[in-house]
Amino acid sequence: MKAIRYTDYQTFPVLVDVDKPVAGPGEVVLKVGASGACHSDVAVFNDFVEGTNPLCAPAFTLGHEVAGWADEIGEGVNGIERGAAYVVYGPVGCGHCRFCLVGQDTYCEHADEVGYLGIGLGRDGGMAEYVVVPARNLVPLGEADPVQASALADAGLTPYHAIKLALPKLNKAGSAALVIGLGGLGLLAVQILKAMTSATVIATDTKESALRQVEKYGATTVPSGDGQVDAIRDLTGGRGVNAVFDMVGVGPTVQTAMASVATQGRVSVVGLGSAGSDYGWQWYKEPYEAELVKTYWGTLPELRELVALLQQGHLEPQYTTYPLAQGLEAYQQLLDGQVSGRAIIVP
Questions:
Q1: Residue 66 CB contacts under 8 Å (≥ 6 apart), including other chains
Q2: CATH 3.90.180.10 domain extents, the chain
Q3: Fewer CB near the last or first residue (10 Å), C or N of the chain?
Q4: What is the DSSP string of 211-276?
Q5: Where in this chain does the record put each Enoyl reductase (ER) domain (predicted)?
Q6: Which CATH number applies to 157-294?
Q7: CA distances to 96, 116, 194, 320 from 4, in Å
């Protein structure tokens, strides 16, 4: 079968022929219906050097946003129906530590023993015709479209996790939320906020097209640039927003977030930028008791909740599809910043 593989540090991936995987005990081979190309993949093959993260050392097949149909069911697997559609929970932990027991494999205490971070992150992923995954990591889709659902595995789950943690800040009358950066994660973040809260949702981006698109989902938009923070504060009567979700994660966006947040508000840095390298906390200028946190991916139960939102019609992921033969082109466009929404590879 064909697969897009990461073969060496700071080396562009290649499309090659590999053997079809076989399901071991407790595993399922999934016929891939769709696999999302993510900026995390670009960071792995473009930025990582030896020692950056040994759990993502080459070589392996990329793709950690995967959905498809059960094709082969391994020994000891119950509750999985051959031919049924599933979305994959990408993180893979030890399965028995205090985090894995509640489906939060992202923070597995024995990741070094596992030897990889997850599907498509150190272990062969879904940028292929077939992928083998632990049966535990499959979330049933019912009648939901696997192409739409694949985007939920990271682009949806990551903002959902951050938003769910911030709900105490938003579940009050007159609350407001700010989403910075309207790529694949930001567009879904706005939809999730509208589905789960009554907060006024404000969104900001450098691209006019992204602002117009997110207005369709009920967001009030503010363009980046001069007067950005003043405009955001004006929309909240000068108080600032109760929760900020920074989908970019670089110094200037974190500065915008902290300048826009209200007293006792919460800033969640979700994007994988370089915030730590050029943002300095100025304790005497920041709002009192404002929280600045970073979040990572989400939990298995949260992915099930997110699929329910899709099934109920609350989410409309934005994406462009590519056949597997053009998957490398999709990664190049992602690297060049030319992808709007999510790039989805459809074998």
A1: 30, 32, 34, 35, 36, 87, 88, 90, 119, 120, 125, 126, 131, 133, 150, 153
A2: 2-154+298-345
A3: N
A4: HHHHHTTT-EEEESSTTHHHHHHHHTTTS-EEEEEESS-SHHHHHHHHHHEEEEEEEEE-S-S-HH
A5: 10-345
A6: 3.40.50.720
A7: 31, 18, 36, 18
Phi, psi angles (nearest 5°) of residue 142: 60, -125
CATH 3.40.50.720-classified regions of the chain: 157-294
Asked whether the beta carbons of 216 and 235 are under 8 A apart, the reply is no
Please report where in the chains the tokens 């990664």 appear, as a residue: 331
Q: What band does 57 get if pLDDT is binned at 50, 70 and 90?
A: very high
CB atoms closer than 10 angstroms to residue 25: 9
Tokens (6 digits) for 4: 């897009």
The answer to pTM > 0.90 is yes
Query: Two tokens at 83?
Result: 């031919």
Contact 134, 105 (CB under 8 A): no
CATH of the domain spanning 2-154+298-345: 3.90.180.10
State which amino acid sits at residue 321.
Answer: T
Q: Say yes or no to pLDDT of 288 above 80.
A: no
* Interval 93-108 mean pLDDT: 96
